[in-house]
Amino acid sequence: NLKNYEDAKRFYDKAFIFARDPIDKMALANNLGIVYHNEKQYDKAVSIYKKMIDSVGPKSEFYPKLLLNYSRAKWFQNPDYNPVDNYLIAEKLSKDWKDDWTKDAAYAYLSAYYLDKNTDSAKFYAEKMLSLAKDLKYPQDQLEALQNLIRITDGAHSQKYFDEYSRIQDSLVNAQNKAKN
Q1: CA gap 152, 159 in Å, rounded
Q2: What is the chain's mean pLDDT, rounded?
Q3: How far apart are CA 3 and CA 107, in angstroms?
Q4: How many Å apart are CA 102 and CA 95, to the nearest integer?
Q5: What is residue 179's predicted lDDT score, i.e. its pLDDT?
Q6: pLDDT value at position 78?
Q7: At 180, is the pLDDT very low, low, confident or very high (cuts 50, 70, 90)?
Q8: Can you tell me the distance from the alpha carbon of 80 to that of 130, in angstroms, rounded to the nearest whole number?
Q9: In this predicted structure, what is the pLDDT of residue 2?
Q10: For residue 81, is pLDDT > 90?
Q11: From the CB of residue 180, how many other CB atoms can be counted at a distance below 10 Å?
């Protein structure tokens, strides 16, 4: 999140040397894929996710998260690629595994995909994301959902979302300032 991608890659590579547990190795590879995605090196990200998906298979509890990240990277790599079916599969599987964090990510990706394509769908998934992020007590995702809702609604609803966004943002800034002190 600090956008220091070179250091992140270097530390992930070092961590691989010490990782013994396959779950730890998978988490490291997933995070490395995220770094490549954030650097817009989508080919590398897609390659990492594809290998992991193939290695775990659809019965794994990690499959939904990997499928989401793979599909997102593939969509960014090729804007004509439609990730929605995979997003919906991942969302359903995350419900089956009772993995609300992955379900939250699925709603985020679905809302983002539909932002410029179908505002009703974007709003539907942004509202689901907002509700779940509140349940998870995850203000960053609440802000992301509210940003989408502000963008696609007008009038009083937009103002309501903006007021909520401002309140959460102020609260986060206060918490960050306390942490700095």
Answers
A1: 12
A2: 95
A3: 24
A4: 9
A5: 83
A6: 97
A7: confident
A8: 28
A9: 81
A10: yes
A11: 6
The predicted structure's pLDDT at residue 88 = 98
Averaged pLDDT, 23-34: 94
- In angstroms, how far is the first alpha carbon of the chain from the final one? 21
* CB-count burial class (<10 Å; 0-12, 13-18, 19+) for 129: buried
Burial class (CB in 10 A: 0-12, 13-18, 19+), 72: buried
SS (H, E, C) 36-54: HHHCCCHHHHHHHHHHHHH
Q: How far from 21 is each of 32, 102, 127, CA to CA, in Å?
A: 17, 21, 37
The tens digit of pLDDT for each residue in 57-71 reads 899 999 999 999 999
**Alpha helices of 39-138 — where are they, by DSSP H?**
42-56, 63-77, 84-96, 100-114, 119-136
Q: Which residues contact 145 (CB under 8 A, 6 or more apart)?
A: 107, 108, 111, 126, 127, 129, 130, 133
Tokens standing for 159?
Answer: 């103002």
Is the pLDDT score of 1 beyond 80? no
Length of the chain measured in residues: 181
Tokens 């793979």 locate to 70
- Find, among 69, 67, 13, 81, the residue nearest to 38 by Cα: 69
Radius of gyration over every alpha carbon of the chain, rounded to an integer in angstroms: 17
- Asked whether the beta carbons of 115 and 152 are under 8 A apart, the reply is yes
